[in-house]
């Protein structure tokens, strides 16, 4: 009887506490809403910026699939967090391309994030050059609206952004920091080392390792 009473007491305590197991609703410290996911993304961004490819985050530190899709669900939010800035860059630079091309664009952003010659946040990497009127990523200052319009493509872009921030994305570009479409031949390309061609994109990195 004493054992049964003890169990009943413990059950009552769990009910009063909302039946929450330690560490969050799934027992792994799950994020509670988009704001918590954006905070997690910021920590992952700092990890990547501090150590190049960074140290592999633990399971509880990684962003889950439902978490990333809950951020900016309609493609209308301001560009002020790592997930949205990275996902919109993937979307606008490679929308309509194969997943491999979208992943390669994400890798360029992450390679820049971990490189000493570039800013140390995703949003700053994406916006770089805007103050001089020469954006590194053309979609950012093309004068067109930046909202994502195609649900399926944007959902794919967010999933790729999730894997990139979690350091779960294979870099198909060979460490590239630059890219352009195959249909153009920019003057700067001859100064760099071509690393790969993926889909309709050509990728490059500096010959000496220093960004320009």
Description:
- The structure is a single chain.
- The chain is mainly alpha-helical and 212 residues long.
- Helix content is 41%, strand content 8%.
- It contains seven helices and three strands, in the order αααααααβββ.
- A three-stranded antiparallel β-sheet has the order 1-3-2.
- α5 (99-113) crosses α7.
Summarize, please:
The protein is mainly α.
Note the run of SSEs as H and E.
Answer: HHHHHHHEEE
**Total strands:** 3
Question: What is the domain total for the residues?
Answer: 2
Mean pLDDT: 83
Largest sheet: 3 strands, antiparallel
Class by SSE composition: mainly alpha
Question: Which SSEs are present, and which pair or pack?
Answer:
Layout: H1 2-16, H2 34-50, H3 65-70, H4 82-94, H5 99-113, H6 122-127, H7 151-165, E1 178-181, E2 192-198, E3 201-206
Antiparallel strand pairs: 1-3, 2-3
Label this structure with key terms.
single chain, 212 residues
């Amino acid at each position: 009887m004493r054992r049964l009473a003890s169990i009943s007491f413990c059950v009552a305590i769990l009910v009063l506490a909302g039946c929450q197991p330690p560490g969050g609703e799934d027992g792994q410290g799950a994020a509670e809403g988009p704001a918590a996911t954006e905070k997690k993304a910021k920590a992952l961004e700092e990890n990547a910026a501090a150590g190049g490819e960074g140290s592999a985050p633990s399971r509880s530190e990684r962003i889950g699939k439902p978490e990333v899709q809950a951020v900016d669900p309609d493609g209308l939010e301001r560009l002020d967090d790592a997930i949205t800035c990275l996902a919109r860059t993937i979307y606008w630079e490679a929308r309509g391309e194969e997943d491999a091309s979208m992943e390669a664009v994400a890798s360029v952003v992450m390679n820049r994030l971990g490189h000493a010659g570039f800013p140390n946040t995703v949003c700053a990497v994406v916006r770089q050059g805007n103050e001089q009127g020469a954006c590194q990523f053309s979609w950012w200052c093309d004068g067109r609206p930046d909202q994502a319009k195609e649900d399926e493509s944007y959902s794919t872009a967010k999933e790729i952004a999730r894997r990139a921030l979690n350091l779960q994305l294979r870099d198909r570009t060979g460490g590239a920091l630059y890219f352009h479409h195959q249909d153009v031949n920019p003057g700067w390309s001859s100064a760099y080392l071509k690393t790969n061609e993926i889909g309709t994109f050509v990728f490059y990195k500096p010959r000496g390792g220093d960004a320009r």
